Amino acid sequence: MNTKNGNNSLKGALNKIESLEPFRSQIGESLTTNQGVRIADNQNSLKGGTRGPTLLEDFILREKITHFDHERIPERVVHARGEAAHGYFQVYEPMAQYTKAKFLQDPAIKTPVFVRFSTVAGSRGSADTARDVRGFAVKFYTEEGNYDLVGNNIPVFFIQDAIKFPDLIHAAKPEPNNEIPQAATAHDTFWDFISKTPEAMHMIMWIMSDRAIPRSHRMMEGFGVNTFRLINADGKASFVKFHWKPLLGVHSLVWEEAQQLAGKDADFHRRDLWEAIEAGDYPEWELGVQIIDEADEFKFDFDILDATKLIPEELVPVKRIGKLTLNRNPDNFFAETEQVAFHPGHLVPGIDFSNDPLLQGRLFSYLDTQLIRLGGPNFHELPINRPICPFHNNQRDGFGRQTIVRGRVAYEPNTLADGFPKEVPPERGGFASYPEKINDSKIRIRSESFGDHYSQATLFWNSQSEPEKKHIVSALQFELGKVEEPLIRERLVSMLNEVDEQLAAQVAAGLGIKTIAPMEPAVAKKKGSMEASPALSMAHIVKNEIKTRKIAILAAESVDAEAVLNMKSALENAGAKTKVIGSNLGTLSDGSKTIAVDHTLVSMPSAVFDAVFIPGSKHSVDLLMASDDALQFVSDAYKHGKAIATTAEGQEFLLKLGINTEKTSIPPGVIIADETGALSSVAEDFITAIASHRHWDRPVLATLQGSPNSIRAALQRDD
Ligand code: HDE
Predict the structure, then answer these.
(1) Cis peptide before 421, with omega less than 30 degrees from 0?
(2) H or E stretch including 315?
(3) Residues in a beta bridge with 139
């Protein structure tokens, strides 16, 4: 730390406090005012007589209430709803060939990080499972200063130029006259804007896909979205796209579950992250980079500066260069998660911007919005935002200033403080912007190379599996079905027709649109170099383990405790979490062993779990069969494609729902023990079925035949 001009006078203040140590320990755990005055009565305000008026001189009451009155700060204008965790990042091998960033060189160094996940449109108290993009913001506290990678879980964005961002967000947020709907794009103003913004079509495909309703924030990818630059020690630059690849795989909910969860557990994702970290199941992602040589800037059939385009992984592979681990929950939500301030302009030497016009506009916005949200220019001093390396400069004063800087010199150059703090040349770690050549006219024109809005939307659609396509159709039917203005619905269907005719026809059918009008003027669509990119489909993500998955065990009185305990230990040995669900809390006994019920059927719906097991005895199964809640639970699990296992006695339960239990016709993902079957082989098959995440190729249950076509179609495959 700079002793001439640093903030070491804080040390002086601390010393003063240390000399008060004996007195401090006397105060001990006392309740005090903010001035440290011990409070004798925190139950009654000061009054003139026992029934008399409250006195203005009651400084204890006034301080307490005044502070309370000011406890709320403005929520983030977007990404207001979120949760965060601490952890660390380690690079696998030195990246010196591409970047001089120090935290990307030494595999032995653990760089501390703070990561916040968020939805975009909803307010701070909105439900976690809204259909939305998820923010994925990472603050690296590096030895060279803070570096923020402020990304999303979708690799592209709605718009190409930041000047459209306020319009996009005004259209997506609740409508301003009646503040309806909360945390949802299913309303007229959003789709009105989109119907006039064809550059959004690629992002629309992603947001209508299951990517927008993740199973867990621990099971979603992250993307830097914008193109950045890496710069090595010789000053050589490469373009880079950043990726986060979750080690638990990429998994989603289905829309019906997301809607149920919004009511049953609005904190579903927040709770999931918190509980996983508390249980020591630390979520992990690998940092991936797609590196593009500067010489290859123009070799693609899209512009790499256009944030509505991705670079298919098949064209430029994602190189995994390090690992992020989240291992500590915040101590205080407000102080950390709410006050953290991310900014894509927080760079360290070795990383730089590209000219992506969306990124360039973002660079202005973050600090600007944080100045008002966090109450002035000193929020970098809040513990969660402070760099871990020393920082000094001549900035002074302002609201909320904490550092007590000594001396009279607050300018540079100076002689009175021997020139401190001093500039640092780039060779010794000073940040120098990449000297990109710029020689052009000042214009407000979108580059022609940004002109193809549909090819990658089609590429995404073509790359999806059949169930994923069904879910997209159903999501569009849901969203556009909520739009009241027919013209907006029709324009959207015409735009979808440019993405894919079948897609448009299916959506149109649900909306009762008979004729699809051609787009005017006609759309100029490039023939992309690829038909499909398998990496874009979640169906191709490796599914081979069940770590941290939540399995429900349905049980009633005289349940076969042995079967429960054996299944529990098989699943837990494979890394899953199990919960016993019953009609009531309490314990259940089969005469020899007793097991505890963790949750009731009414408090924990099937949507919270990844799979369900129905053990015997016959009596327990009979009791469950008489419960509407239990039948609903398993029927939902079946409908949502989840793995279901039963002992031989449990077959009856499946039969009651209309699930075929004949050996040759058992639906995929349903495992039934035969009379002689040992539970261990059931457990093995069950684990494999859970690992597959969902089983879509199941026949529709007779009990569901009456449910709306759109739900059935979305959830099941016709074949
Ligand atoms: Fe943001 N964005 N954004 N954004 N963004 C904010 O900054 C903005 C964009 C992203 O957990 C705000 O402190 C503009 C893309 C995340 O605290 C604000 C544009 C991507 C978060 C802002 C974009 C993001 C934000 C609101 C278009 C993915 C939450 C509160 C040019 C790469 C960070 C705040 C957190 C937050 C502006 C587009 C990611 C208003 C102008 C693209 C993850 O400054």
Answers:
(1) yes
(2) none
(3) 114, 148
